[in-house]
Amino acid sequence: MEKSSEGMLRGNLDLLVLSTLLDGEKHGYLIQKNLQRSSDGLVSIQAGTLYPLLHRLEADHLIRSRWDESTKRRRKCYELTRAGQKRLHSQAVQWREYVACVQKMLQPLFEPGAIPAGETP
User: Fold this and answer.
1) In this structure, are residues 80 and 62 in contact, taking their beta carbons and an 8 Å threshold?
2) What are the pLDDT digits (tens) for 23-63?
3) Residue 9 CB: number of other CB atoms within 10 A?
4) By the 8 A CB rule, do 38 and 28 touch?
5) pTM, 2 dp
6) What does the angle CA 34 – CA 40 – CA 46 come to, to the nearest 5 degrees?
7) How far apart are CA 104 and CA 121, in angstroms?
8) What would the DSSP string read from start to end of 50-118?
């Protein structure tokens, strides 16, 4: 991923992480894998980035955690709170509006006769 794409990603990590919890609780490693799989490998978050983000989302009452001890390995599972669901919906609506705006503004680049990438007039 290009550096500019990484900056856009960093600004939207909350939205992406909250979206992975929409279908139920997950532990951190599963959140990482879900983000990577659902983005076709474009989103790859390291544990050193993910866990502080999860702790912040929990402190903001957007997610809650519990210890799962049903397997040999004890692990922390995270799920959306009602406030987290509301934030996710709000951010998703804002993101959709933003994407529509950018698409509208960039549309002339994709019309016949537009300047091809890498060329100047």
Assistant:
1) yes
2) 999 999 999 999 999 989 888 899 999 999 999 999 999 99
3) 17
4) no
5) 0.82
6) 55
7) 22
8) HHHHHHHHHHTTSEEEEEE-SSSS-EEEEEE-HHHHHHHHHHHHHHHHHHHHHHHHHGGGGSTTPPPTT
